[in-house]
Known about the structure:
Number of helices: 3
Distance between the termini: 11 Å
Number of domains: 1
Radius of gyration: 13 Å
Strand content: 35-45%
Largest sheet: 7 strands, antiparallel
Strand order of the largest sheet: 2-1-3-4-5-6-7
Order of helices and strands: HEEHEEEEHE
Shape: globular
Oligomer: single chain
Amino acid sequence: MSLFSWFKKTQAPQNFESGLSLTSQKGDLLNPNSKEVEEAIVSLSNDPEGFVTLSWTSVSGDFSFIQALCFDGSYLIEYRTADLKKGYVYRKPNVPIEETLQFFRSFLENQTLTLDVDWLQVKAY
C-alpha cells in the first residue's frame, strides 16, 4: 500500500474531529504543540522509512496536510490544500531540515502554506 493510499484510508475525515493531528510511525497526536512537531521532523533523519504528517480538519470537514519523508539527509515535502482537486498534491524535493521545520511551523500556526515556483503540482493518488 502506498503512503498516500494509507493516508487516504486512515486520515480521510469520515467521522472526523476538527483540529490538528500529527501522524508518524511512532504514533498519533491530536493538537500537537510546536516542540512535538519539531521532534517528529528531526527524528526522521534517523528513520529512512519514516514519515511525518501534520493534518488539519476544519469544523466543516475540509482537510489539508503537509507531509515529510527523509531521503539521504534531505526531505521530500508534500502538501495538499483543502481546495485542491482530489488526488493532487504539491511536492517539493530535496528540502533541508531547517526549511522543512519552517514549513511545518507555518502549517501548525496557519493551517496553510505560501508556495513559491519550486513546488510542483502532481497527481499522487
